[in-house]
Amino acid sequence: MFKVPNPFDELVKKTTSEMLTAENWELIMEVCDRVGTDSERARQCFEVINERMLHRNANVVLYTVTLVQSLLENCGQSVKQEVSSRAFTTTLTRVLNDKSVHEKVKSRILGSIQQWAFDFRQDPTLSLMEETYTKLRAQRFVFPPPQKPEKISTASDVERQKEEDDLQLALALSLSTDGAGAVKQSYQTPAAIRSEITRKQTVASTTGLARRTTRATSGASAAAPEPKRKVQ
Fold this sequence. Notes:
By secondary structure, the chain is mostly helical. The chain has helices at about 10-15, 25-35, 40-55, 60-75, 75-85, 85-95, 105-120, 125-140, 155-175, 190-225. The chain is globular, with a radius of gyration of 28 Å.
């Protein structure tokens, strides 16, 4: 029987790729935007997420947990239902019982389960997460000490950072002129532009400090009393 392709398959795998060296927040926000508040899209997305949670690469699992938390922060009730579903909680328990899984991964998952159980405690439709937490405690899994929840970037945070980066690049390009004011013809890479921005900021900071020091010295000299002249 022909299997219908999952529309989230490629995107979720790219977002949690083992080739990444850090979370790709632009891709994470793209997944969140695509899921939105639609229950069917949430279900399709979590089909792929369940597969990624069972990946043998530790970074893939960690990136997937971050994606899940971001979906909870940015999407609707349908995502909470998927996180508290029998399928996902079973996947979490399966990973925790796998002796080959790195302890760092298990600790991250245990911390997430603990936080989700607390967050969902007032909603009876999400009670399966609290049940999972209780069962794991009974099995003597050691949960990490409760910590302040990590701030997850929202779509507005990513857009704000992108606008700031674009502004800085535009500023650097506008300053790329020679002494006569003509635009330089040589190409500048993004790394070179950012280096130039840092250099100019350092120069400006040093110049400002020197000016403040000069003014302070001049003020002190002006305020110093003239020595009394000896009367003959």
